[in-house]
Amino acid sequence: EARAVEAAGLDAVVATGFEAGGHRPSFLQEAEECLTGTLALVPQVVDSVRIPVIAAGGIADARGVAAALALGADAVQIGTAFLACDESGAPAVHKEAMLATGPRDTALSRVFSGRLARSLRNRFMDEMAPHVADLPPFPVRNWLSGTLRKAAIEQGRSDLISMQAGQGAPLIHRRDATELMDDLIRETARLLARMSSAETAYGAAPADV
């Protein structure tokens, strides 16, 4: 798919790993066949195309940014961490659920829209899972569940809404977008400098004893 993006003349490609929140971006194969993790996916995409590669999936803090750059990515795409920011338009109940999530609280499912998406697990996802094959496909399913989701948001019902989030959700904290950006820039620079220092030390000739 990365090669297809390049062949189409696009300026860059987003390498989206298994860990990412929201809908799977695959378009040449079924989503279930394209579930490679970010750590393995990014360097493979970097080696396959000449256009800039943007890493996405599970990147929620400066450590993830530095790791993605070390893998050869030219930039990163961060969604979940900003979704929880004060300026985000996400429902309050969605933000609260993300800030309280644990490492096993997200799952991939087609129950809400008919397309495979990673969201925070809740009652609707769990109870509808056995019936996924009997439900209409996208976009009909997305339209049908829309009324339920809207009413659930108005009532603050986190058990009945689609709360898309990536596996990096446990790493996020309540803050505004400016604070998050400042922290990402500052800490990424610090980590990259530390990595550079370690590389220099490792490559230096051993001192005389």
CATH superfamily: Aldolase class I
CATH class category: Alpha Beta
Shape: globular
Strand order of the largest sheet: 1-3-4
Helix/strand structural class: mainly alpha
Radius of gyration: 20 Å
Helix amount: 40-55%
Largest sheet: 3 strands, parallel
- How many domains, as an integer? 1
Walk me through what this model shows.
The protein has eight helices and six strands. It is mainly alpha-helical and 209 residues long. The chain has a single domain (2-197), classed as Aldolase class I (TIM Barrel), CATH 3.20.20. A three-stranded parallel beta sheet has the order 1-3-4. The radius of gyration is 20 Å and the shape is globular. The termini are far apart. The mean pLDDT is 94.
Give a short overview.
With 209 residues, the chain is mainly alpha-helical. Helices cover 41% and strands 10% of the residues.
Keywords:
6 strands, mainly alpha, 41% helix, 3-stranded parallel sheet, 3-stranded antiparallel sheet, 209 residues, TIM Barrel, globular, single chain
Chain-wise SSE layout:
Layout: H1 2-7, E1 13-16, E2 22-23, H2 38-48, E3 53-56, H3 62-70, E4 75-77, H4 80-83, H5 92-99, E5 106-109, E6 117-120, H6 123-128, H7 140-154, H8 177-203
Parallel strand pairs: 1-3, 3-4
Antiparallel strand pairs: 2-6, 5-6
Helix pairs in contact: 3-8
